[in-house]
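Translate sequence into structure tokens.
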Amino acid sequence: MVVVGGLLIGGFWVFGHVHGQEFASRLGRSTGRALNAEALLMPLRWSPLVVSSDSLLLKGESSSLVARAEAQELNAVLDWRSLLSGLWRVEEIAIDRLTAEFKQPSSPSLPREPSSPPASGFFPTRFQLDGVAIKKADLTYKNMTAREVGLKWIPMPSGWRIDGRGGTLSVPKLPVCQVRSFHCREREGIFLLDEATFELPPAGKVSAEGQSGKDANWKINWTGMPVRSFLSKGLEKYIDGTLSGTSRLDKEGCVQGAIQLSGASLTNVPLLSEIGKFTKDPTLQNLPLQVVSADFDYRAESLQLSNVILESHDTLRLEGRLAVDGAGKLAGDFEIGVRPILLQSVPGVREALFSKLRDGWCWAPLQVGGTLSNPTESLSQQLAPLLMGAVIMKTGSDVMEKLPAAPVDAVRDVLDLILTR
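Result follows.
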């Protein structure tokens, strides 16, 4: 009886202790130490197997990946049998909603101390968390935002394993992607991304891997991305196709890689349409581009495009390079080639502009300048009077009344579209 009475008294003491604010504070401090953050846990609600709280607030220290976070509707499943071995074991913390902002730690991570502060008597002095399941999470890191993502966090000896699925990912200047899945590890303030896959309907796919920190290096591949998702308003009616490519991002924020455009075509471009009528070439109404590719280097808000190639096998080919600085200023050096047969309908153009013959193309130099909002090029002023003269010679001066725009403006529109966008 004495033993039974002692066990009952001890049980009531444990039950009363865990229902008190002191235990909630201890649990909050333990959680905070695990994440190198200040933690505030709202009062606890108890059922036989589950402990609940309305919210947990976190404010990260300098050594923490977490800048701030708020978890809502927490439910912790306890293993009461572990009390007999002096351990508070939480099998899982289920969180209904998490909003968190992450950052790069400004100082080395502190050693993690998952144990609670010592308690008197036989009260358990150790704390163990087996995992955290988050139904919906909104996460922000620098200028990237993930929304409505499902997460599973599993503690590891030196950090966390983090698996995610569902939701969306937003990155500036890129279309919003659907999150398919990702698997990463956090170790002493460093994220190690083992695998991540994303989708951009209807058929675009993106994959990524790499790590953060002083040795940051990310590899990103993409296929089937609709080019119209990246174009400024108004241009999508002229060009179609899908983008693919690969890139590497380093710790300085520099991105290098290569891009290709497949299934591409130029459709209903005003000047090409008029030239098609003049040369009786219907393919110019919907001009297929069999090759569109370039290497790129983006750093310090400036973009360098090199090895630029754009080709329609039977009509034109463009080769060269283009630089765009942080203010949007353009500097491009290109050669544009056309098939000799097309120049037969425009007397004088080959001799005046496209005099260089190479690989079956007649080439002319082309320089691009101006800005993204007001691009300029060197060819239209030379080509327009020759084209206009050929039209007049072939059909008479009355055709001028039927042209959709001044020839120089029409030529510039097409070159702007193809070369400087």
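Note: The longest helix spans residues 2-18.
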